[in-house]
């Protein structure tokens, strides 16, 4: 008898087990990038101070790009024969990190914290790409494509935190709040 947790169909040449495994990896990325898109908008609304407009306007194209990534991930899950879960309750119930911790703050403080956010998202996205490498080239390619953009956006953020000598003001930080404080101190 067919297992109930396996898709009844998946993409040609993958087994239902492989399809389910790839979809499960993608579901974690759906949650992470939906969370990132919401967090970026939160920063867009809460940034204040002399560099307001530069950061406010830098963030929106990142939101648009990340939303497109989420859509592509969800549609790949459906293509694999599995139902993508995109509800807010499921996002909060399944994520493994806390809500973004900073409200109204200076541009440089938010960028310090956003550096930490991007580090987490990119590390997990790279791991997900590796996890599907042997199973599904198409999903691997999708995730690698996202990394091209995510790492570029991360550089946009880090360029604000970088000294002329090439070091980052957030280099010793391990939390969003710590990174925000470190970035603001060097402003
Ligand atoms: Fe806006």
- CATH hierarchy: architecture: Up-down Bundle
CATH T-level topology: Ferritin
Shape: elongated
Please report the distance between the alpha carbons of the first and last residues.
63 Å
- CATH class (first level) name: Mainly Alpha
Sheet with most strands: 2 strands, parallel
Number of helices: 6
Residues in helix, %: 55-70%
Summing up helix and strand content along with how strands pair, one would put the structural category as: mainly alpha
> Which hetero compounds are present in the coordinates?
fe (ii) ion
Any idea what the radius of gyration is?
A: 18 Å
Please name the fourth-level CATH homologous superfamily. Answer: Ferritin, core subunit, four-helix bundle
User: How many strand elements?
Assistant: 2
SSE pattern, N- to C-terminal:
HEHHEHHH
InterPro entries: DPS_DNA-bd (IPR002177), DPS_DNA-bd_CS (IPR023188), Ferritin-like (IPR012347), Ferritin-like_SF (IPR009078), Ferritin_DPS_dom (IPR008331)
Domain Ferritin/DPS: 25-162
Protein name: DNA starvation/stationary phase protection protein
Pfam families: Ferritin
Layout of secondary structure:
Layout: H1 16-46, E1 47-48, H2 52-79, H3 88-94, E2 105-106, H4 107-131, H5 137-159, H6 176-185
Helix pairs in contact: 1-2, 1-4, 2-5, 4-5, 4-6
The protein binds fe (ii) ion.
Domain Ferritin/DPS: 25-162
Pfam family, one: Ferritin
Region (Disordered): 167-187
